[in-house]
Write a structure and sequence with these properties.
- It contains six helices and three strands, in the order H-H-H-E-H-H-E-E-H.
- It is mostly helical.
- It has a single domain, classed as Winged helix-like DNA-binding domain superfamily/Winged helix DNA-binding domain (Arc Repressor Mutant, subunit A).
- The chain has a three-stranded antiparallel sheet.
- A hairpin with a 2-residue loop joins strand 2 and strand 3.
- The N terminus is likely disordered.
């Protein structure tokens, strides 16, 4: 049964001239964009990104700047941003400092431009 499925995929690729790989690449790119947009649509994560655009911060400072939400809640949001590769971290002693990655800086700049946009 598996061999039949592989043959059908191969014959499908032959009929389409290998266009499936291009379609799959585009689908993967769209999926990546959608996931990144989902990640940054939460207002709390947007605020964190904009705060980190001003420079490196530790969780305590981020909590203060955001009006003192719970530290575990902020750490969770930072974890999501880190797994999305928008934020990077470095431990120094007892503190962990967070900063934007290149992708995170691009997103923060886009938010800044959108904030200046007037309809």
């Amino acid at each position: 049964m598996i061999a039949v499925n592989q043959k059908s995929v191969q014959s499908s690729n032959a009929r389409t001239g290998g266009g499936d790989s291009e379609k799959n690449r585009i689908d993967a790119k769209v999926h990546q964009i959608v996931n990144r947009l989902r990640l940054v649509t939460a207002p709390s994560r947007q605020k964190i990104l904009l705060l980190l655009a001003t420079g490196e911060q530790n969780v305590g400072n981020i909590c203060e700047e955001l009006g003192n939400p719970s530290q575990p809640a902020v750490s969770h949001q930072l974890s999501l941003l880190r797994h999305g590769r928008l934020v990077d971290c470095q431990r120094r002693g007892r503190n962990v400092y967070y900063r934007l990655t290149d992708s995170g800086q691009t997103v923060a700049q886009a938010f800044d431009r959108l904030a200046k946009f007037r309809a």
